[in-house]
Write a structure and sequence with these properties.
41% of the residues lie in helices and 22% in strands. It has 158 residues and is α/β, with parallel strands linked by helices. A five-stranded parallel sheet has the order 2-1-4-3-5. Helix 3 links the parallel strand 3 and strand 4.
Length: 158
């Protein structure tokens, strides 16, 4: 199963890029995790933020490979625990279903994007910097991988 994190923003701190790469590198076949960065719209003092978010959303959706499941990561979405995430990803692996995970920019995702995706997930009730989401997603994908494949990384609730 191929996963692609499609995220608005190209300039992230080095530790974010390193963290994402570290967890993505740990995955083994048949799982892969790639990152596709979408340039953020330029924000100025009098910018039409809703219009900028719509434009970013259009580019996010256009970057999704044909036939892939699409999951938007948004605070309005459904929260699931790590074991549930592992079940989702395990099922998608069994079904040979690839998935794109969409992360908006600093102003989030447009309503149009949220209407067009297969699912909307919330990572946390906490507000996370959109660049930090990359590391959280990569770590949780690796944790789910370890659960599905019986690796000792995840110790879970006892």
């Amino acid at each position: 199963m191929h996963l692609c994190l499609i995220a608005v923003g190209e300039r992230v701190p080095a530790w974010v890029a390193q963290g994402f790469e570290e967890y993505a590198r740990r995955l083994r076949r048949p799982w892969t995790l790639k990152l596709k960065e979408i340039p953020a719209e330029r924000r100025s003092r009098n910018a039409d933020i809703a219009g900028l978010v719509r434009a970013e959303g259009e580019r996010l959706l256009a970057a999704v490979p044909t036939g892939w499941r699409v999951v938007a990561l948004d605070p309005t979405g459904h929260q699931c625990d790590t074991e549930t995430l592992a079940r989702h990803l395990g099922r998608w692996t069994d079904e040979a279903q690839n998935a794109a995970l969409l992360v908006g920019g600093p102003d989030g995702l447009s309503a149009d994007v949220l209407e067009k995706v297969n699912e909307v997930w919330a990572l946390s009730a906490l507000t996370l910097a959109h660049s930090v989401v990359r590391v959280v997603v990569a770590e949780q994908v690796y944790r789910a991988f370890s659960i599905v494949h019986g690796l000792p990384y995840h110790r879970g609730a006892r």
